[in-house]
Amino acid sequence: MRIVVFGATGNTGKRVLLQGIKMGHEMTAFVRNSEKLYEQLGEHSAKHVKVIAGDMMDPVSVGEALAHQDAAILAAGHAGQGEEFIRIVDNIISQCESVPSFSGRVWVMGGAGLLDIPYTDLIGNNLPGFPPEYRNHNRNFERLQQTGLDWSMMCPGTMTVSREQPDSVPLLVTTETLPVPVPETIREYSEADIAGYLFSRFHELNVAYDDVVTCMLEHLELGGPFKGKRIGLAYQTQHSTVR
């Protein structure tokens, strides 16, 4: 497939490029600094990537990068950037909507605080004690809900450079809800107590960058099971039990 990656020099984006190359995809990197990308990829991998240096806030540049692509992966920016982060995502999504030759399969990065908490009508980002900048992911999610694109939102916990679990431990992938079991009695907790409980469990959501990237690259088909869904990831360890 032809895949364009926005934010291709970041921790997630550079791994998308490398895995995509190994899987035989035609990869395009949209970056601000092409020299940084070449340094990261190395000479061999750089030969297999089309590089576009541009401004993610420029509709024309973004639109040209999306032309004739089969999928776009938005790994650009972070919640701490505030309004700039919101504008970057909105501009890229808007161009995905308006470029006729773009097929519409889009992956956007979010966070575990966006996922539904089982047995409640709550998400972590709205609970007391959660960093307020995380709610910028909420706004990007609301933007996606307004589009007719074929999108998915990846919502991992803390991403790590390497796997903290053995390769034999399988990855659990969930749609919409947190990928760790919680007791049904959580519905009786106050919001503050729910927040405290989740904070005590968040280490169970640590997941390697490479596993996050693999999940996205393995689900690029149009109309697949992840269409219009928030996706959670966790390792299925023997400790992943209801407490």
TrEMBL record:
Record-given protein name: NADH-flavin reductase
InterPro entries linked: NAD(P)-bd_dom, NAD(P)-bd_dom_sf, Polyketide_Oxido-like
NAD(P)-binding domain boundaries: 7-163
Species in which this protein is naturally found: Paenibacillus ihbetae
One protein family per Pfam: NAD_binding_10
